Amino acid sequence: MKEKMIEFFHSVTLDKDKCVGCTNCIKRCPTEAIRVRNGKAVIASERCIDCGECIRICPHHAKRAKHDDMSLLKKFKYKIALPAPSLYGQINNLDDIDYVLSGLKELGFDNVFEVSKAAELVSEATRKMIDDGKLVRPVISSACPAVVRLIRVRFPDLCKHVLPLISPMELAAKMAKAEAVKKTGLNWSDIGCIFITPCPAKVTDITMPISSDKSAVDGAIAISEIFPVLTHKMNDLDKTEPLSSSGIIGVSWSTSGGESAALLNEKYLAADGIENIIRVLEEVEDERLAELDFIELNACSGGCVGGVLCVENPYVAKARIQRLRKYLPVSQNHIDGDVPAIMDWAGSLEFSNVLTLSSDIRKAMGMMVEIERIACEFPGLDCGACGAPSCRAFAEDVVRGVSRKSECVFVYRKKMQKVADTISELEI
Predict the structure, then answer these.
(1) pLDDT at 3
(2) Which of 131, 137, 344, 352 has its CA at a distance of 20 to 30 angstroms from the CA of residue 63?
(3) How far is it, in rounded angstroms, from Cα 170 to Cα 193?
(4) Rg (the chain; Cα; Å)
(5) What is the pTM of this model?
(6) Cross-strand pairs, 269
(7) DSSP three-state, residue 307
(8) Does domain 357-428 have CATH number 1.10.15.40?
(9) DSSP 3-state assignment of 111?
(10) CA distances in angstroms from 124 to 118, 128, 294, listed in the order given
(11) Residues 259 and 233 sit within 8 Å (Cβ to Cβ)
């Protein structure tokens, strides 16, 4: 589904007061959305995919993610928590998911619906669709919104490979609301589904979803926000309710490789970390991975447990998920018959031309030639002193008219050297 290109919402924001213009962030951004101008970072809204890499890398904590807080619950008559399975990996010595779910109800939620439950249904739907042979292979998972946005911005030829199924988060919200309407008799708008999120990309996907016109999720509270109060409530629990209804397949979605393993198919690849997934996408684009049926990509290292809104080291969290799996059944949720229409995307994924130099092909070609010519004037060190992530990116900024060649310290030094030599010759 194509996004409106007029305005953008982003969870990732910049605190200019904390930014010192250190250029750490510009080199890690996968879409080159960040520049340093006048000593401060500037985020190009149309390029940002909210992967959170700049939040992770900034030593001054100048990047942060917008998300909701617990006051959001006051807006709804009936509140449903949608915990991401990565939440379970944050809690030490967890052997019963019901402790977490009961703790969430103690915080003020009227009900809990596990996203891992919906994940099991998405896994089964994916298996059915791959077996039907109607998908373009290799099929690329659509679960990580940062990856989906990266594809539509940088890899337009791969849009047709993206799995046309909504995410477990979105499916969980739709199912939870439908159940709540029957149970309470309330209107859809009176029921609030709140996602407990590990990453900023999910927050953005709720406000500006790609797979539908409007998300069924009503807000997102960061795991880091809810963790302290949740663990306090869990410690005070006298008993738990039997709320959990998911198994190994659903909970395993929280770590890299979990979604792929659930397909019961050996022809898959799972990669995590933004730099690694870019390399994989480049190989898919070059048709070097055509033998695969499925590719799972997670922007965060380790999978969702590595999200910047989590509190635990991703490798520790992954080990905890592995231990928790010992106490779970394989799966508790299945699809009867064909894949239901509720799981389908509202449209197809379309290329977003935010990186296009010009809509006029002739003009764009001329700009590309000029970029290559100007780039040759730079040293090719990609030092970042100019405020751009690479010499070629800086050359593009010059051609676009937002920078001057003299902002390159090496070009400026050569220019000053010529001036000094000229003055020296005049003095002689």
Answers:
(1) 41
(2) 352
(3) 10
(4) 24
(5) 0.92
(6) 295
(7) coil
(8) yes
(9) strand
(10) 10, 6, 14
(11) no
d(CA 270, CA 302): 10
Report the C-alpha gap between 182 and 71 in whole angstroms.
26
| Residue keyed to tokens 């250029």 | 23
**Which residues of the chain fall short of a pLDDT of 50?**
1-6
DSSP 3-state of 406: helix
Supply the DSSP string of 33-65, one letter for each residue. -EEEETTEEEE-TTT-----HHHHH-TT--EEE
| 321, burial (CB in 10 Å: exposed 0-12, middle 13-18, buried 19+) | buried
| pLDDT value, residue 357 | 85
Cβ of 70: how many Cβ atoms within 10 Å?
14
Cβ–Cβ under 8 Å, residues 245 and 117 = yes
CA 351 to chain CA centroid, nearest Å? 17
Q: What H or E segment, with its residue span, contains residue 24? A: helix 24-28
CA angle 136, 137, 143 (to 5 degrees): 85
CA 350 to chain centre: 18
Distances (CA, A) of 371 to 23, 46, 170, 374, 395: 22, 21, 42, 5, 5
> Do the Cβ atoms of 139 and 293 come closer than 8 Å?
yes
Q: Which residues contact 303 (CB under 8 A, 6 or more apart)?
A: 86, 253, 254, 255, 256, 257, 258, 272, 314, 318
Nearest 5 degrees, angle CA 306-CA 308-CA 309? 105
Residue 246 and residue 116 in contact, taking contact as beta carbons nearer than 8 Å: yes
Cβ atoms 209, 170 nearer than 8 A: yes
Where do we find the tokens 């926000």? 225
- Residues with Cβ within 8 Å of residue 255, at least 6 apart in sequence: 89, 302, 303, 304, 305, 317, 318, 321, 322
What are the pLDDT digits (tens) for 152-180?
A: 999 999 999 999 999 999 999 999 999 99
Cβ–Cβ < 8 Å for 298, 304: yes
Q: Output the six-digit token pair for 294.
A: 């499925």
Instruction: Measure the CA–CA gap between 206 and 169, rounded to whole angstroms.
Output: 9
CATH 1.10.15.40 in the chain is located at 357-428
**Sign of the C-alpha dihedral, residues 102, 104, 105, 111?**
negative
